[in-house]
Fold this sequence. Notes:
By secondary structure, the protein is mainly β. It has helices at 2-13, 176-179, 361-367, and strands at residues 23-26, 37-40, 45-48, 63-72, 75-80, 94-97, 101-108, 111-117, 123-128, 140-142, 144-148, 155-162, 165-170, 185-187, 197-199, 202-206, 214-219, 236-239, 249-250, 262-268, 274-279, 285-286, 293-296, 299-302, 309-310, 315-319, 331-336, 346-352, 385-389, 401-405.
Amino acid sequence: MTRALVVGLVACAGCYAPPEPDCGFACGTGGACPADYTCNAIGNICQRNGTTTSVACPDTRPFALVNANASALNTVVITFESAPAPSAFATGNYVFSPGLFVSGIEIVDNQATLTVGGMNLVEYTVTVSNVTRASDAAPLALSTAGFLGRPAFNVLGVHATSSTSVTVAFDALPDVASIAAPNAFVIDNLEQLAAPQLVGTSVVLTTTPQSPVFYTVHVTGVGRAVDGEVVSGGPFTFSGFPTCPLFEVADDGTFGQGGQALVIVMVRPSAHGWVELYNTSSMDIDLSTTTYTLVAAGASFALSSLGTTIRAGGYLDFAWPAGFPDETAGGELVLYADATLAPPSIRDFVCWDSDTATPSAKADAQSVGKWSTPVPACAAALTDTSLMRQQFSSGLFGSDYFSTSQLPMTCP
């Protein structure tokens, strides 16, 4: 009986073999697996040698959103742990805070590239829902990620601050290396005598002496310091600052009627003169779609004819309109919302000297808040004085201006 049991056990031992499934278990540290198995990176599974890597093995990794990144202007790339299911193409499955509109999605492997609009330079959070893993329909274990927005990088304005100095103002800090690059700033018909200097978020250029004409500035390859986004738009224009300055008058700094976005900042009311406007709002203003009208001594000028856009918080300089009279001895400039030129549509107002040609100037100025203290624009005390905007000030407050005797101007 003992001999029969031994024979039986020996026979059974030859019949048993450990199970060797094609897909075994999760890979260990560094892809470690038992003998006869190799770690398959697709799913992090130990797979039996001799089977193909196309065998559908269950994925042991949690399905997660790895990160999100604003890789380019209006583009957000979302990286998943592995390839997502087709549900990842649904724009409604991506919710941004602050809100962003998703207009398109492209997916390659485990990355979804989203086209969005209206990004600002702020921190965003994206939350993804209803998206599963393509291989096994596993739900997202981690569905949120943060990233820094990447909007356009803009030039707010270009101004001559002296007869040999020009300031280029940006809406964010520019990269130091990019502003020092050759041909980063080129001014037609002016030479630069020194390397560009960074002052806050502006760049100051030193030039050969300017004339009272318009110059064109080309800004090329200048990037934003935080993300390298290259400046958009241009070329840009500014009025040269002559060695002997012409008469200039500035707004008193108050808002126009109804707190309108567009205000008049400074005026040089003569041949070779100019007008400077300021967009106080957080939105760009496309003048070509507006009915804004400037009026001086009976002559009118439609701003839509300029065919340009004033960036949010930006300035626009343009030539004193043809047909406008020389008003260095006294005058007024009124900004209307439309071409009806009715008093209710007045949006901003600047006047200077006594202006005997339009005795209602003071009443009109008072009606839209353009006659105020401590620096009134039209007061009789300014008969021989004009107001100048302080360098780098916004022009929205009385303290942004100082008085200078400039009327009439006599040059040697």
